[in-house]
UniProtKB/TrEMBL annotation:
It holds the Pfam family His_kinase. The keyword Lipid metabolism does not apply. This is Signal transduction histidine kinase internal region domain-containing protein. The keyword Electron transport does not apply. GO terms for cellular component: membrane. Residues 95-170 form the Signal transduction histidine kinase internal region domain. Keywords: Membrane, Transmembrane, Transmembrane helix. It comes from Dyadobacter helix. One of its GO terms (molecular function) is phosphorelay sensor kinase activity. The chain crosses the membrane at residues 22-44, 50-71.
Length: 276
């Protein structure tokens, strides 16, 4: 079942729930009205000849009927809520898989372009080795994985930035200072790669204007910071609100119900991602 079909099913279940809540309210109101009428009848007939056994029996029957209706409707509503919860979890999984699939092809396209441009250079062999290490990491994680150890992500980003440095040489500097005791914590797979790629995509990188990227820990966050020198024609809003950052934000909301923190000024661009 696709994500769209799941959303349709959830909508129908909610409609079913609303209808039954409405019917339940009508039945409860009707029952209470009948009980009030019965109570008024007893007061009105006080001292007169009336079959109290029949009246009491009717009252007991009415009370039992209302109790049974409440119990049945309560059971139905609980079952509906469980089904909605199950479908919501499945829908979140589809969204996560979709977000993961948006990342990999883009990176492969860039990597192959770099490889093509350097086909006659001596560094091609080492480049291919590092590229293979990057994709070995990607293939080791199936599409349904939601989290990865920070230690594994750092190893991956080191191989990834090694490839990038072959292209940008001294124009790119990536420094990673993460304590070893944090490497067993988790973040979404390829989160660091998304942030590094975002910095490279939007900023000038040259010997004259080098790009400095620093990855470090601050409280319960991993922080990716870079100096800011936007390429000509780049929209500053697109830097902080691009597809990559939006996808990463959605992944955090789906996985951990947390948000990333984006700080943007004239000199530095900083993104903080929670450790899980």
């Amino acid at each position: 079942m696709t994500s769209g079909k799941i959303n349709v099913v959830i909508a129908r279940i909610y409609a079913f729930t609303k209808r039954h809540q409405f019917l339940y309210g009508i039945l409860l109101s009707l029952g209470l009205t009948l009980m009030l009428l019965l109570w008024g009848l007893l007061l009105f007939m006080d001292g007169k000849d009336i079959d109290m056994t029949a009246v009491s029996g009717f009252g007991i029957f009415l009370t039992a009927l209302i109790s049974w209706i409440c119990f049945e409707k309560g059971m139905q509503l609980r079952e509906v809520k469980r089904e909605v919860s199950r479908l919501n979890e499945k829908d979140q999984l589809f969204q996560l898989i979709s977000l993961r699939e948006q990342v990999n092809p883009h990176f492969l396209f860039n990597a192959l372009n770099i490889l093509k441009s350097g086909a006659q250079e001596t560094w091609v062999k080492d480049y291919v080795v590092q590229l293979a290490q990057v994709y070995r990491y990607l293939l080791n994680y199936d599409s349904e994985l939601q989290l990865a150890p920070i230690g594994h992500e750092i190893e991956f980003i080191e191989a990834y930035t090694h490839i990038l440095k072959e292209r940008f040489e001294s124009g790119l500097s990536v420094v990673i200072t993460i304590p070893n005791d944090l490497k067993t914590r988790n973040i979404p797979p390829m989160a660091l790669q998304i942030l590094v790629e975002n910095a490279i995509k939007h900023n000038v990188i040259s010997f004259t204007y080098p790009l400095y990227i620093h990855i470090y820990q601050e409280e319960n966050y991993l922080v990716v910071s870079n100096n800011r020198r936007l390429k000509m024609g780049r929209n500053p809003i697109g830097y902080s609100q691009g597809v990559g950052l939006k996808n990463l934000e959605r992944r955090y909301r789906l996985i951990a119900r947390q948000s990333i923190v984006v700080l943007d000024d004239e000199e530095y661009f900083v993104v903080k991602i929670p450790m899980i």
